[in-house]
Specification:
By secondary structure, this protein is of the alpha+beta class. It is 31% helix and 14% strand.
């Protein structure tokens, strides 16, 4: 049998799925061929469809009602068009509490140390330190917090490039 390209990214450095044998995947993407906690195989591959772009094509017959896809968000973040919310757990806030490092809104000390918040917190803390050195820097930072908060999802998505290269590869392939 001829070697197949990765079912997701077209890489030719692949291994065949040892469970179904229907698709091949590169080291980064073969794990995305598995369905959620069951670990079953996804019955599709991504192909270039002339005149339509990239799309999913079945690799076998699919039974009615069969679970065929499990998706996880590449990134999440607070909504810029709601009442103030915690940048870690997204709880709507009735009173303001700020992360002591980056000054973004959080609901608790636990959320200021929460895993979802750490990416932007480390980046924004570095920037905040530099802004605070400017004349009226702290005031400027506070007045910019709603715009900074609106950028959290973007920061989290862009950080996939170094935090999770496999997820970044999938995200950038979606823009094809």
């Amino acid at each position: 049998m001829a070697r197949q390209d990765c079912f997701l990214c077209d890489s030719c450095d692949t291994v065949q799925c040892d469970q179904c044998g229907d698709v091949a995947g590169c080291e980064d993407h073969l794990k995305y061929h598995k369905l959620g906690y069951s670990g079953g195989c996804s019955p599709y591959r991504v192909v270039e469809i002339e005149g339509a772009g990239r799309g999913l094509v079945a690799t076998r017959d699919i039974a009615r009602g069969e679970h065929i896809m499990t998706t996880m968000a590449a990134g999440t973040g607070p909504c810029a068009r709601t009442a103030p919310q915690c940048v870690n757990c997204f709880l709507l806030l009735s009173s303001a509490q700020f992360c002591p490092r980056c000054n973004l809104l959080v609901c608790s000390a636990g959320c200021s140390n929460g895993s979802a918040h750490q990416v932007e917190c480390s980046i924004l803390t570095t920037i905040r330190v530099k802004v605070k050195r400017m004349k009226d820097g702290e005031r400027i930072w506070r007045e910019s917090l709603s715009n900074i908060t609106a950028s959290v999802t973007t920061i989290r998505l862009l950080s996939l490039k170094w935090r999770d290269p496999a997820a970044w590869s999938i995200l950038t392939n979606l823009m094809n």
